[in-house]
Amino acid sequence: MTRHGGSRSLKRLNTPKFLQIKRKHGKFFMTPSPGPHPSRFCLPLLHIVRDLFEIVDNHREAKKLIGLGNFKVDGRVVKDRTFPVGLMDVLSIVKTNTHYRVLPDSHHGLILHEIPEAESTFKLCRITQKTTLKGGNIQLNLHDGRNIFISVKDPENPKEDVYRCMDVLSISIPDQQIIKHLKFKEGHLAIIVSGKNIGQMGKIISILKRFGPKASTVSIQHNSEHTETLYDYTFIIGEEQSAISIP
């Protein structure tokens, strides 16, 4: 019989370039577990503990430290050593009471930016899809795999349906209650989360919608420079000011 599913092993030469590891030091690297973020755009938890934080010296020590429940992702204890930590996730170290947010970066792709404790109680999630459920209620599907249920009193006149795809929600963690709704429109602040301009932040000047996959573009202004990127690469982070701290 053939084995179903993806490969359980990952060679270092085939790892994403943004991982801060030596590509030729050793032969294998950990494969991220199936989870809320794509395997090619995430940081495995063990990689963070061993290679980025350098809390421990080897794989065995990192595995034991994670198994003791010393790390939280979005307010929940994670004991899976290969758990994928991705865009906008909040990572907390329990014993030291330090908190980090995963942000896009022009050099490394994804970085861990230290944030104060008050900011670790919420995260930003982009709406990727909307689903209408039985009874006219709405389900919002977010970029990190979460689903938020919106109750609608009158399906024929749904006043509660103010959410659109590409809008961003500020939600509390871990109970995921909606704190604020940031609309995807001109004049709001956005950060580029993919492509060659990843990590650039600025104000949206114009949104040009075209027919076809990856045809729509967004123009972002940072200081006096203008950057044009794909529609799907834009992530709203605030209105007049950023809702999260940026490095």
Description:
This protein has 247 residues and is mainly β. It folds into three domains: 10-115, RNA-binding S4 domain (Structural Genomics Hypothetical 15.5 Kd Protein In mrcA-pckA Intergenic Region, Chain A, Roll), CATH 3.10.290; 121-181, Ribosomal protein S4, central domain (OB fold (Dihydrolipoamide Acetyltransferase, E2P), Beta Barrel); 189-238. It is built from two helices and 19 strands. The protein has helices at 45-52, 59-67; strands spanning 10-11, 28-29, 43-44, 71-73, 76-77, 84-85, 90-93, 98-105, 109-115, 122-132, 138-142, 147-150, 168-172, 178-182, 189-192, 201-208, 217-222, 225-230, 234-238. The strands form five sheets. Strands 5-4-7-8-9 form a five-stranded antiparallel sheet, with no helix packed on it. α1 crosses α2. The radius of gyration is 19 Å and the shape is globular. The N and C termini lie far apart (51 Å).
